[in-house]
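Exercise 7. Predict the joint structure of the components listed below.
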Amino acid sequence: MDGRELPRREREKLAQRGEMMATALDLFSKKGYRNVSMQEIAEKAEFAVGTLYKFFRNKEDLYKALLGEQADAFDEALRIAIEGPGLEIDKLRNYVKAKGLVFRSNVSVIRLYLAETQGASLDIKAGLDTEIRERYGIFLNKLASVFESGMKRKRFRKIADPFSLAVALDSITSAFLLLWLEEPERHPYPEDPDAILNILFKGLVDQ
Amino acid sequence: MDGRELPRREREKLAQRGEMMATALDLFSKKGYRNVSMQEIAEKAEFAVGTLYKFFRNKEDLYKALLGEQADAFDEALRIAIEGPGLEIDKLRNYVKAKGLVFRSNVSVIRLYLAETQGASLDIKAGLDTEIRERYGIFLNKLASVFESGMKRKRFRKIADPFSLAVALDSITSAFLLLWLEEPERHPYPEDPDAILNILFKGLVDQ
Amino acid sequence: MDGRELPRREREKLAQRGEMMATALDLFSKKGYRNVSMQEIAEKAEFAVGTLYKFFRNKEDLYKALLGEQADAFDEALRIAIEGPGLEIDKLRNYVKAKGLVFRSNVSVIRLYLAETQGASLDIKAGLDTEIRERYGIFLNKLASVFESGMKRKRFRKIADPFSLAVALDSITSAFLLLWLEEPERHPYPEDPDAILNILFKGLVDQ
Amino acid sequence: MDGRELPRREREKLAQRGEMMATALDLFSKKGYRNVSMQEIAEKAEFAVGTLYKFFRNKEDLYKALLGEQADAFDEALRIAIEGPGLEIDKLRNYVKAKGLVFRSNVSVIRLYLAETQGASLDIKAGLDTEIRERYGIFLNKLASVFESGMKRKRFRKIADPFSLAVALDSITSAFLLLWLEEPERHPYPEDPDAILNILFKGLVDQ
DNA sequence: CATGAATGAGTCTTCATTCAT
DNA sequence: GATGAATGAAGACTCATTCAT
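Solution:
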């Protein structure tokens, strides 16, 4: 038996919590924070409201836990993609691939995550808002340092400052994912990362 | 007298409507759709709630009218920037400039507009959603045709399909505006459009 | 027509407010603060809950207004009874009579008033609590000064300090009123104030 | 071994019950019946809620047991003070002293007890209410009989009927204890019972 | 026609009580 | 026999919408 195995009770609690969060995520991402009632979440998750409140102090708490954990996972996945040794160009490829993968396997979170990082979160005052964006900012800087490193090593040309390039790459991938989200058939997210990266790699205008 | 001149009565009504929408826009963009009450809008606009309901059938209607008209204005401004004769490269420059201008002089709308076009509109079910996005899609195609035309005339290299380039440019400019919105001092929107366009124009990797 | 006459609208509002307060008073005094719901008050007063909230910011507010106004009236009536010129002994008689009258014609308030002045208000944190007691303290001092004045003028013997005598008289009258409240037949509040005052006036033990 | 000694099991249960009641008393007297939850009591007493319900059928039951037992103790102490042989005047002195002692060493109960006997118990409908008051009535009659006996033996003058005197003495002592409770420094409960009794013993007005 | 008072369904949250383990 | 997780009814409060004046 594995030492990391939790006692049954604990495992059940985690499972419950997981179900609640999954249900809440589903509803929030479909209808928006204010349009989902605790009653509704509880009902759909097949718990009593009271039980919901045993796990989360209040509605906002639930929402924050939700976003926080999802953002953690995303952040982690993207961070790993660009860390470690290797050519900068490969890191960027990894990033584009990872972002596609992680988003496409978490469709319901995308809208919520984008709402928070792209700046349209008007329901939850601050706190999460701030926290997620901060981490997002940190990630952008890491991405920028990939560009910077590439320039230092003369592998990239200095066509713009590294941070702007990071912003550009991040926004482009998000935009493509959004298109895919709306019409998956018409706008598939490219399998080959270079389909996106070439926009940055190759110049539109001859030098 | 000008034939287009409206009777006093009509003009007054339009003025009233304008004030209501301006007040609503201000409140919605600051606090979010669900966090603003009709009472609050009426009070701040110095009308009675009943009067508000004379102009807009319900809260959603008001919101849709608001977004719709703002989107109209934006769309128009951006469309004009890329229409007409001239070099494609100049059209793109015009677009980057116009987008900067129009957004920076309508700060309070940005968040709402981005929320709708970038995909986080969870409060209003559909309808507006659809309409704005449709027009947004149409505009993206117009922008794409600028790239296409540039390619046809051998002014642009075929580094990616025109629509993808349009998406890329649009998302990059939006991302920069978002950064500016959060920290205007740290992230000014560039005066020179080439600061942004070079990301597309020049290639990161030598050919 | 009287200049003090209020416009119809205002009069109606006051009448509504009055009805709400009367209903609330009735319910609170019968069932206690926490055992009465705003819904219940609204229903019994034949208003919608929302209307209740138009007049009182919240439940506590309603309770405070209630107690405050009633305490005002009581305080006023008792104060008048012991003010002005005249023999101290007559003032005390007036006080005993007035207290009897005012309480017996406001039966439903007695319990609430006593609960506040006699110290068992555990539902409402502070504020009213404090305010009513303060005014009650002030009144006790006024009553004490009647005893003091009587002593100075050699009309009363110095059997205890004036404040203690005030406390004694006040508590005795309250106690009798409480008895009457429980069993009006068995424990009528005496018509002749001396029936109560003699307890203080005449000595139990020969001097 | 003593025959009255209870088996360990029983003793433990009694001890548990005692702790629950002590905790409940503390909380009720501080926050009021409705503002204390069974969870809170259980937690603070370090038992599970279920255990609480093993000892008391429901919340009201717990409250009644609490008040009942406290009232028993009070009643007993006061009864003893005025029973037995001895001069009536000494019994009254004993009563004043005993009431002071018993109240001051049970501060947390005072408010609850007074709330019940002085008529402001609005939380618990009837039952306890009735029972406590009944016993309180019985005690008042016992106190009255002390006055009566004194009058019969020509030791007291007939300044009022014995029951009224009992009510008066009881309410005065309670009032003084209440004052002490609020501001112990400013209003100490007198060490010498005559400080209070003189209000009854000596007449305010010369005969 | 404008007004804004009135409405009451709907929201979040608490807590007495039960019962499976 | 103790435990405390689960329940869900009930309560305070908000706000979109209506309609009498």
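Discussion. Residues 37-40, 49-50, 53, 58-59 of chain B lie near DNA strand F (CB under 10 Å from a C1').
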